[in-house]
Amino acid sequence: MSILVTRPHPDNEATAENLRARGHAVLLAPMLKFEPVAFHDKSEADYGAIIVTSANAIRAVVPQLRDLSLLELPLFAVGEHTAAVARDAGFAEVIVAGGDAAALRDKVMRSARNKLLKKKSTLLYLAGADLSRDLGAELGAEGYSVVTQTTYRMAPVKILPRDVCDGFAAHGIEAVLHYSRRSARAFLEAARDEGVEISALAIPQCCLSETVASVLRDAGASQVLGAATPDENALFDTLERALRTRLA
Hints:
alpha/beta; five-stranded parallel sheet; elongated; 11 strands
């Protein structure tokens, strides 16, 4: 029996490795495809810091970071994974939030209150083309100046790999891991188009957050669990709980 990981490449490889270390067989079906967007910063603002809600936003601009003189700026990362990618890219000062955009917003505001960040300085928000929430607007409403630059998009993948379809048909998949609302929607559409929707939704759907979980519940899945916190360790705990429940 396998665990199906719908997380995009390349992060799905690390997820698969961690699951295998826990004794699970793994199938991969990345439901979103990373596409960098050309980055042309036409703003003449003197940035005080960078804010990032996805590791992909950093990956998309790695070749330009040094030429744009961005590496010497402090970077506010949404969580530990994004922070690790930022450090690997060369950022020396990385401030880590609690795993979601709301926590990142609050971290920026606390840093300003604590005089670690000048509130009057302009923030550069490296973002994806499709935002689940407008962090720039939220900070703007609190009096911050934010320049949002789209550096990547995640395109839905419209088909499931053949081994995944065969796995559903043979009841060889015991749970599915979901990481975002958009990837969950892409998974549902692909499963429907491939004719495996009923078997796909009959097993536990383990989601990074309750927001993601709502997509699966609305689609009719009966065994949907949301992680206690928006990080992969919590998601793995949710998976183990789901599997224990199935065996009980």
